[in-house]
């Protein structure tokens, strides 16, 4: 039985979204996979940029909408940034995504639900939702370890914030 856990992160603006990205970057190791989803303009690329900066990527990170996959060098490990919005399941299957998912770096997949069958069984899913103005609600689901444990820590942090 696979371990799962869920958490909710409330971001009043970009800085709180970036705070979550920095926290997850700190916990990440080679082979970490973050699956991002949400409406257009919900902050997926903003999150990815903050995450990349947190792992030491010096290059400008922008959405790989037309290139599909961009690779960056971070301080401790590579960063693989994917946007699969324009791909069919079959096209995505031909890209050899497992080389990234199980490689030496950390992977963020934007629009991940479109290739759900190809994602590793253990991953962190984040769904970003508009909550008025710059505010966002980020629903997080950790599937397997260490991701389920990450959600538990985020829940504890949320409880402490609300006390």
Automatic annotation (TrEMBL):
Gene3D superfamilies: P-loop containing nucleotide triphosphate hydrolases. GO terms for molecular function: ATP binding; metal ion binding; transferase activity. GO terms for cellular component: cytoplasm. It is found in: Cytoplasm. GO terms for biological process: tRNA threonylcarbamoyladenosine modification. It holds the Pfam family TsaE. Keywords: ATP-binding, Cytoplasm, Magnesium, Metal-binding, Nucleotide-binding, Transferase, tRNA processing. Belongs to the TsaE family. This is tRNA threonylcarbamoyladenosine biosynthesis protein TsaE. The gene is tsaE.
